[in-house]
What does this fold into?
Amino acid sequence: MGKTQRPDAEEGHSRLGNTLSGLAVALGCVLFLGGFLWGAVLYKPFTVPTDSMDPTVKSGDRVLAERTDGADVHRGDVVVFQDAVWGDMPMVKRVVGVGGDKVACCDRDGRLTVDGDPVDEPYLRSQGRGGREPFSTTVPDGKLFLLGDNRKDSLDSRTHLEDAGRGAVPRSAVSARVDAVAWPMGEAGMLPEATGFADLPAGTSEPGPLPLVLLSVVVGAVLVLGGAAYGPLARRFTTSARRRSG
It folds into this structure.
């Protein structure tokens, strides 16, 4: 005959289980709510208004943009900005040149050049010259030269080359850097890195903390659900065990 567990042992195990499940729920709440608050402070949602950045982001896509100061922007960043010369609404473009850069189009392979160095941009909608009008400009200090990834259908710095700023916008016009597509779900994910700019002076931006924010939320949710489920599952298991032993 098998030994039956004493009531005081069962009660001890139950107290320990309840304590651990309570700790799991508490920790889960901290991670879950903390992740949401962390994300709300660092990121803001933004709806892309045009297809000028297709295929990286498309018109109507809901993106998560990290709030940032324009001084922290690097080449290759996809930024949200607003400049009166460009219009009265926020726009999304990619930074391809910073103050002092000579930006030109294009080399014999149709690639953009920065200070004479060709830049590989695999995220573009189409590769090669593709009828793009040649240009060459030097970006004024404290400003950014911005292009869309859909170079054939983007009103960007090239459109404003004759303006006083030679197509560039002040760094202060930038309010956020796009890290990921949040919606639609089928296209959700982090934006591809602009590694083609990595070897230029100052390199590219460090990845944002969005993966850590999401990890905190997911782990928190698992702990809350797991801890909350412990009590009912433990009682069901104990009741079944008693019925079998009886």
